[in-house]
Amino acid sequence: MAITVPHSLIALVFYALWVIVLVLMIGFDRVTQVLRGQTPVNGFPSGQKHGSDSYWRINRAHINACENLPIFAAIVLAGWAVSQEGAQFNLLATVVVVARIIQSAIHISSGSTMAVNLRFTAFAVQLVCEIWMAVLVLQTAGVL
Length: 144
Fold this sequence. Notes:
Radius of gyration: 18 Å
CATH superfamily: Membrane associated eicosanoid/glutathione metabolism-like domain
Distance between the termini: 37 Å
Strand content: under 5%
């Protein structure tokens, strides 16, 4: 028996998997630094900039993704709860995930002014989509 899962829930799972990919990248970088003797095991202080510039950009990309995952999850799960499974809602959820991956990739690749502007654009796309999704949920719930 096949279960039909809304694309928005699948997008949520992919978002969570992307966060896992980012943390694995951090872990790989840390293990590499420790094994090469470049950094002691306890040489990664929480909340303080440490490591190479590229390592720190991965770290920040991960933190940014983690900060926004609960917002996206709340909207997607609220949509699921009110049976908001329309094509528009699902497309918006997919765009959020793609824009998040693009934002992270830009964040990891460069800290240049152009990269920051592109990263902000990808973030703005996510915000617009999430607000739109929230409005659709509230409309479906009869609030708007």
